[in-house]
Amino acid sequence: MTELLVRDLGRLDYRAAWDVQLATHAAVAEGRLAPTLLLVEHPPVITFGKKGGREHLLADPAALAAQGFSLYDIERGGDVTYHGPGQLVGYPILPVGRAVRSYLRNLEAVMVAVLAEYGIPSVGSPGYAGVWVGDEKVVAIGVAIKRNVSFHGFAMNVATDLSHFSYIVPCGIRDKGVTSLSALLGRPVTLEEVKPRLVRAFCETFGYTPVPFVPSDPTPETEASL
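Above: the chain sequence. Below: its structure as tokens.
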């Protein structure tokens, strides 16, 4: 099996994590680094994909900034979404070639498998990208492919403050809701509890062997760039 580097960034500002993504993507595309899965938790941030979605922002940007939210326009597919504390965000940086649909279905399958471990039936929906429990989205998916290598990825609501979604129309879908793993189970769930389950399901679905990321030169400069 091909090795998958698994790098846990902890809680990291969106802009800083975006920089790590781009540096990692370049290294994978150039063959300098093995396929990599970045895991991260962000402070509150709202991002807009290629479809835009500014019309689906329901709060004044200045007011959001005053509450500690950041806003970014990014290169992933999709509309507006929210990331924040209690949400497990994953950025798979993998060679996928032109098999984009297959890649998206596999991402959905990973999330369905993780939720099934908790006894929660869920489905992926090509029409409404992400993973759903009934009419509520528990995992958002939005990817980009450049030089045949994926980046951006998924966001699973684990213990997310769901009230923060009231500032947007999530993914531009007005007649659906959002939920979290904690809400579905009726108990607190931590990211640390979910991470090993997610990595295992990811590797089983995509056919990888997980290995921890170890920088070749663990200096602050290397950490910032890779």
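The mean pLDDT is 87.
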